[in-house]
Automatic annotation (TrEMBL):
Residues 125-238 form the CRISPR-associated protein Cas6 C-terminal domain. It comes from the Bacteria. This is CRISPR system precrRNA processing endoribonuclease RAMP protein Cas6.
Length: 251
């Protein structure tokens, strides 16, 4: 089971908080849990936590979205976040004005969600800086192959009992995906002393797939808002949201 929780943070009006401060929030969170669990998290190739920080114009507040991607993370981390009243950082203390919790969901529910959808287009919004690693270099355009590989890697880490390993099916899935529109801009994500090249914005992807593969793709897209996209999702990168819709016929 995986679970999402959001903390609404209210910084002082004259203080601009960059999205890269999600890394500092992560540091605070690690200081609130046992060192044993923290060490266990860092020993894993894929960490059981993905999170990001973004600004809400409606609330004039920061929204810290944290996704807990296995039962152990839910048991250890969720109580810390649910009870948080303020988050002290080195520079200032961020009050927590609201905590939003969402029901835990399973792989089976995501798969059923994929089966229930017939839409062949989806818009993926990249809500925090996103990047991929390809041949040892940062890739700052969301190619279909990179998107698919990332979603599958995050899915397999969260749901090893439902691991996607059929190479023929995955190749067919990749061949049926096409980016048909995008609105992106490059950015940098400051991580310690490194400014990681990245992008934000959105892409529209059309899926020309047989029904079983379309169901699988839509399940992965439903998972994207929890598992994130690209590299360093444990450190605040790759926050995503997906909107499904049908292709508008040309009249």
């Amino acid at each position: 089971m995986i679970q999402q929780i959001q903390l609404v943070l209210s910084p002082p009006n004259d203080v601009r908080i960059p999205q890269s401060w999600s890394y500092r929030l992560y540091g605070w969170l690690m200081s609130q849990i046992s060192s044993e669990f923290g060490e266990q998290m860092h020993l894993q190739g894929e960490h059981p936590l993905a999170h990001f920080l973004c600004f809400s114009p409606e609330k004039q507040s920061l929204i810290w979205t944290v996704n807990l991607l296995n039962d152990a993370a839910r048991q250890v981390v969720f109580p810390v976040l649910e009870s948080a009243k303020e988050i002290p950082l080195h520079e200032l203390t961020l009050p927590v004005s609201e905590v939003r919790t969402f029901p835990a969901i399973s792989a089976e529910e995501l798969i059923r969600s994929g089966r229930s959808r017939s839409e062949t287009r989806a818009k993926i919004a990249f809500l925090s800086p996103c990047a991929f690693k390809q041949s040892g270099r940062y890739a700052i355009f969301p190619q279909e192959t990179l998107l698919l590989q990332s979603l599958i890697a995050h899915w397999n880490a969260a749901f090893p009992e439902y691991a996607l390993i059929d190479s023929d099916a995955l190749q067919a899935l990749q061949q049926g995906l096409h980016i048909v529109d995008y609105n992106l801009h490059t950015t940098r994500y400051l991580l310690k002393e490194t400014r990681i090249p990245a992008f934000q914005g959105n892409v529209t992807i059309e899926a020309r797939l047989a029904p079983p593969l379309l169901e699988l793709w839509n399940a992965l897209l439903s998972f994207a808002s929890h598992g994130g996209v690209g590299i360093k999702t444990t450190l605040g990168m790759g926050g995503a949201a997906t909107d499904f819709y049908k292709k508008t016929p040309v009249i």
